[in-house]
Amino acid sequence: MTAWLFMFGGLLSLTGVAYAYTLRKTPGALPLLALFALTGLIMFASGREALVPGLEAKLQWRNLQQIGYLYAPLAFLWLAMAYTREGTRFTRHTLALVLTIPTASLILVYTDTFHHLMRAQVGLDDAGMLVMQRTLLNQAVYGFTTMVSLVGLYILIRSVFYTRGAQRQQLLYLIAGMCLPSIIAILRSAGVIEMSGYASSIGITYLPGLLIVGWGVLRYQMFHSVPFPRNRLFEMMNEGILVLDRDARIQDLNGAARRMLSLEGSGWLGRGVGDTPLPAERWLAAHRARGETASFDVTLGEGVEARLLTAKITPILYRNRTLLGSLSVLTDRTEEHRREQALRLAAVTDGLTGILNRNGFIAEMTREIEAARERERALSLLVLDIDSFKSVNDRFGHLTGDRTIRSFVEAVAASAGAAGPFGRIGGEEFALALPGMAEDEAFACAERIRQAVCRVSIQDGRGGAFGITASIGTATLLPEDRSFESLYSRADAGLYEAKRLGRNATRQGGEVGVTV
User: Fold this and answer.
1) Which of the two ends of the chain, N or C, has the fewest CB atoms closer than 10 A to its terminal CB?
2) 135: Cβ–Cβ under 8 A, 6 or more apart, which residues?
3) C-alpha span between 384 and 424 (Å, rounded)
4) How far is CA 360 from the centre of its chain?
């Protein structure tokens, strides 16, 4: 009967091998295949040992079982590491060491008749069962395989705490299947379970484990979905995760948070939030809050090294009353913020010259008008136009026209110095704000600009050069000016008058529609 149980266990193992082979591309399937194959070898060899007569024949099948006993714990460790994706991969040196011990032991088992290093005595009892006395070396080898199994078991148990649902059930079935043979062996040794003959064989203890793992495979589709370890997910996140205890001391943080806060190494553990670059007071207020998640932006660093982070801080409460700590999620929005700034700048910037476009200038000028009224200071506006610009395009082409506009802008900017907003209103027309300048000062500034423009020399693209002139209208903010349009209309009227009088001139605009 016992022999048939062994055969049943062997067939069950072969079924597991076939199943694992169909999932060979799934993490953990290949070591499962190896584990089932080694367990099947133990089962079939144990069954044959029970059936065949004679010491020599039984010893041959017992030696064959040792392949499974020595390598199955390694397959189990491999399975645990692959299935949970926990732990580090074996280095070549570690792999060589781990494989060397069972391989050398197997060689010693098969050559034991020459040196008796693994078995002190071998014989048959009254029931015809093979019995032997193990040496200290033999016991040490199997102590090593037990330690390897315990490491694999530890990896599986640790992963249970980081998984949920079906994945946790998969792990529990796998743990139970691997633990049960050891539990049965301990209970048998303690006399709690009475087993005699080949029913007391180590191989028979593998059968309940196989049944449990097999049920887990069928019930929870084991290896169709593989648990994804919390540690790996935690470290892979782009968001920084910061866990504080109730006293706002750092208990855990992932790699992204360490990079964001420049907390390298392990010295961060137990440090208060005040020891980090984060704004401690604001952070502590959110940490101790009993309400909803607090969210705010934090800027770390200065200048080009500045980083913009968005922080979301959620207090961790026990039964909605006792503060246990807080969970903070940090999102680095630096690049997003820079892109937004670049888009906003592009929306108000003239692409050809780099100065403000019409919308950008009007917005800036409106703020200048409000500031001038609040501070009761003077504000003037210049409206400038390149004379006969159309003829430049007609004679030399648009590329030369673009160079002309850029040269004009450079001349105005250099002559005006630290003036106010400067923008291109449209085509060859420009506007320049002069905060703090009254009528006479603004007129003098306009004349300096006009004379600077006259000195500009532009290459025509044909080996020659030509000059340009500008007409300028000026206006100063009056109490009755209600908007930018009112001030601009008077400056534009001055520009129109300058052009009417022959161009290359500066004129002041008076009341709306009147020039002086």
Assistant:
1) N
2) 116, 117, 118, 119, 120
3) 9
4) 37
State phi, psi for 270 to the nearest 5 degrees: 85, -5
How far is residue 36's CA from residue 214's CA, in Å, rounded to a whole number? Answer: 10
Instruction: Please answer whether residues 384 and 431 qualify as being in contact, where contact means their C-beta atoms are separated by less than 8 angstroms.
Output: yes
Least confident of 94-98, 143-147, 289-293, 348-352: 289-293
The string over 134-170, giving b where at least 16 C-beta atoms fall within 10 Å of a residue's C-beta and e elsewhere, is ebeebeebbebbeebbeebbebbebbbebbeeebbbb
Kindly report the backbone phi and psi dihedral angles of residue 163, in degrees, each rounded to the nearest multiple of 5, phi listed first: -125, 165
Angle at 397 between CA 393 and CA 403, to 5 degrees: 80
Is 185:69 a contact under the CB 8 Å cutoff? Answer: no
Please report, as a single letter, which amino acid is at residue 352: L
Q: Rounded distance, CA 392 to CA 33, Å?
A: 82
CB count within 10 Å of CB 419 equals 20
Look up residue 333 and give its DSSP letter: -
Closest to 48 measured CA to CA, from 15, 106, 109, 6: 6
E strand or H helix at 3, and its extent?
helix 2-22
Give the pLDDT mean for 438-464: 93
> Which amino acid is residue 463, in one-letter code?
G
Residue 322 burial by Cβ neighbours in a 10 Å radius (0-12, 13-18, 19+):
exposed
Is the four-CA dihedral 267, 271, 275, 278 of positive or negative sign?
positive
Question: Cα 269 vs. chain centroid, distance in angstroms?
Answer: 21
| Burial group, residue 311, by CB count within 10 angstroms (0-12, 13-18, 19+) | buried
User: Shortest CA distance to 119 belongs to which of 173, 59, 51, 186?
Assistant: 59
Whole-number Å distance between alpha carbons of 32 and 38: 10
How far, in Å, are 110, 381, 407, 428, 430 from residue 411 at the CA level? Answer: 97, 18, 6, 14, 13
pTM of the model: 0.48
CA distance 238 to 429: 48
> Closest by alpha carbon to 466, among 393, 414, 415?
393
- Angle between helix axes 2-22 and 206-220 (nearest 10 degrees) is 40
Q: Per-residue pLDDT for 251 more than 90?
A: no
Per residue in 69-91, pLDDT (tens digit) is: 899 888 888 888 877 765 455 66
How far apart CA 367 and CA 365 sit, in angstroms, is 5
